[in-house]
Amino acid sequence: MGADFLVPAAAVVLSAVISALVGWWVAQRQILLAERSNHLAAADKIAGFRQAWINELREAISEFQSVATVVGDVRSDERIYRLGTKSELMMNTEDDDYLELVSCLYSYLDYKNLTIEERWQFNAPLVSVSQRILKREWERLKADLNAAAKSNRMPHSWTERGNKDALAG
Predict the structure, then answer these.
(1) Domain segments of the chain: what residues?
(2) Which of 135, 123, 122 is nearest to 95 (CA)?
(3) pLDDT interval class at 136 (50, 70, 90)
(4) Global pTM?
């Protein structure tokens, strides 16, 4: 009776252990998927904010340039100052091109005493520095999204994650 009892009992124990391991593995995969999903969602949200910032800065600078280049009235003066200040405030003072952008914006401030031809001379430098800033931010946005996508690659097995966690811990 002892041997007859041990074989089924061992099968039950083995079945329970296998079931527990499979359950644990499935739970680990679900946790990993949730972590990766949260990471991608956060990266996507940040990318959305950065893209909105790029678009808003582009719009502010282009409108500033349009208003500052033509002869205007008091309303134009207000818009020029508002748009110039907005563009300046949107920038990080540590940006490599910050001082050049501010210099370009301020070069328009004496626009009332300048002819249209003289005002047009400020366009090329403003466009050039603006394009550098916007391109750099666009490249940063793309790099951040690529890095997020690469960091969210799913490991081939739970052991790969275990090794990664062991290195991190």
Answers:
(1) 41-154
(2) 135
(3) very high
(4) 0.65
